[in-house]
Amino acid sequence: MDTLRKIKKVWKSKPTIEGAGVHLKRAFGNHEVPMFDPFLLMDDFHSNYPPHYLKGFPWHPHRGIETITYVLHGRVEHGDSMGNKGVIGPGDLQWMTAGSGIIHQEMPLGDDEGLMWGFQLWANLPASHKMMPPRYRGIVAEEIPEVTMNGIKVKVIAGTAGGVQGPVRDVVADPEYLDVTMPEGSTFTHAIKRGYTVLAYVIDGEGYFDHERNAYEHDMVGTNYFDLERRCECTAENLILFEDGDVVSVTTQGKPVRFLLISGKPIGEPVAWYGPIVMNTQEELQVAFEEYQKGTFVK
Fold this sequence. Notes:
This protein has one helix spanning about 280-295, and strands at about 5-10, 15-20, 20-30, 40-45, 55-60, 65-75, 75-80, 85-90, 95, 100-110, 115-125, 135-140, 145-150, 150-160, 160, 165, 175-180, 185-190, 195-205, 220, 235, 240, 245-250, 255-265, 270-275, 275-280.
């Protein structure tokens, strides 16, 4: 018999500043390792004030991870040490495997009205793949299939939903990455492999991510100690981490909801992390930064 996944914890993403001065909301990061293994970090960059994002993320190195950038509104210019360059537009995705080392830049441009909205997810690589050759995959919106099931729309970026497979394949973490939009009064159930890490991030609206609708059964990080009106529905900028099980079930009542549903196979290895480089040991980190200083970082 299938087991429904219960909510383990709920967070609210927190404002922070990264890059050369980009204002964004961090859903999770360094402090949550290894809770989200194989994922390391997730940022929500959402602003209609260009001075808060135009300085962008100038040239910087990555090693040992994959960075996944998904754009809802606006454009992001990018370039890297492999010679890739272009623009990620609305609905587009960039799945970059840094592997042994890559130097790149990402410069948000916004749209004609100044709106910029997207997400960046970092996925860790196991020791056996930390030094794999870098690779870049740019996927435009038209390449991402959308499945409609009982009025629920699912954009399948990675993994499978409704019998349709997404364009991102052959990834070490065996991930699923779905963009789900549910109308009011609907139920979405999705099977996910037991033992995999599963998270959801609410983009807009509100929904119930626990079939028992009990806000007191799980941790709500950031909730005021004296807040006696804990809500069991999750709203925009809420991050949900699920317990183990076979199936995720989400329902809506009087409002629609849109969320990202992401899962991956845990690595279970030590994490040595400093800035944009994630390895298994402090010694490996030191080597990476020494190579960067010497100009031998890119293999």
